Task: inverse folding
């Protein structure tokens, strides 16, 4: 069992499964949302995840043209999970919210076209210029 | 090369800000709080003067907490999308820690090193040749010196 929570702890996600994928995304939206150089999401099937606590939703159109719905804590602002109209059975959970220094490494990096040059992912992590259907960078 | 003022904002655009003085340093912070706030592996923090920072659009939400180093801190975030913009000290230290990913142009940013490396995700590669601190640095001098050496903001 893994637990992800926001910075103040009122919004939590419990997961009783290993993620199907861990994705590092260097798109500019993920940089803004994370305040960092890339966002990091672990993907699960919806049925594997249980959510408790209050959240607000910010929806935006992803590069795929489909809406993604970011669920964040109204008290501290941290986005803990998101859902995507493109793949409604999946849920993405912020890896940082697990606060687990032994969390799984990324299984792929996407939007490498806007990746900072000083960010280096492990050599065995496949990279893609944009989404996972785009050209390989690594 | 960046030029002043630096501008930035949250994910959804409800909050916008302006910074009129150059940051004193930029580094990556791997503390667990930064991981939770941003959802990523670390935050890219820019140290800026509080007096040089202003919101030009929107009113942020505010949260307070006690840091691992024992300081009472505050954070500003967007109430519409959650993006954390900056942190400061409640008993003002006159310095804000801006979350660098919220700047409009991040292309020039090259962090000078890494702090709180003890809680970093194990696959993360630290900045090559950078300054490191296992926890909160007691002396930020080497970080500021390395940033000045980058000469991003020549006089």
Result:
């Amino acid at each position: 069992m893994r637990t992800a929570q926001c910075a103040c702890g009122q919004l939590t996600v419990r997961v009783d499964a290993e993620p199907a994928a861990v994705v590092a995304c260097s798109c500019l939206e993920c940089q803004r949302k994370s305040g960092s150089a890339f966002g990091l999401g672990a993907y699960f099937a919806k049925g594997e995840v249980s959510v408790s606590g209050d959240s607000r939703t910010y929806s935006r159109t992803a590069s795929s043209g489909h809406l993604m719905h970011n669920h964040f804590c109204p008290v501290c602002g941290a986005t803990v999970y998101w859902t995507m109209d493109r793949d409604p059975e999946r849920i993405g959970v912020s890896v940082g919210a697990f606060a687990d220094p032994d969390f799984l490494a990324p299984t792929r990096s996407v939007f490498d076209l806007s990746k900072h040059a000083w960010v280096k992912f492990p050599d065995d992590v496949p990279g893609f210029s944009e989404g996972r259907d785009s050209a390989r960078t690594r | 090369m960046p030029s002043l003022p630096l501008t930035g904002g949250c994910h959804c655009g409800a909050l916008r800000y302006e910074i009129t003085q150059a940051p004193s340093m930029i580094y990556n912070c791997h503390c667990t709080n930064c991981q939770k706030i941003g959802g990523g592996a670390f935050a890219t923090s820019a140290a800026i003067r509080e007096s040089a920072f202003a919101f030009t659009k929107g009113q942020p939400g505010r949260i307070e907490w006690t840091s691992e180093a024992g300081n009472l801190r505050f954070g500003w975030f967007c109430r519409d999308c959650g993006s954390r913009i900056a942190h400061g000290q409640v008993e003002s230290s006159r310095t804000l820690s801006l979350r660098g990913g919220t700047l409009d142009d991040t292309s020039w940013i090259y962090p000078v090193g890494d702090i709180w490396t003890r809680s970093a995700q194990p696959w993360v590669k630290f900045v090559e040749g950078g300054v490191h601190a296992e926890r909160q640095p007691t002396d930020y001098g080497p970080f500021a010196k390395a940033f000045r050496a980058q000469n991003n903001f020549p006089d």
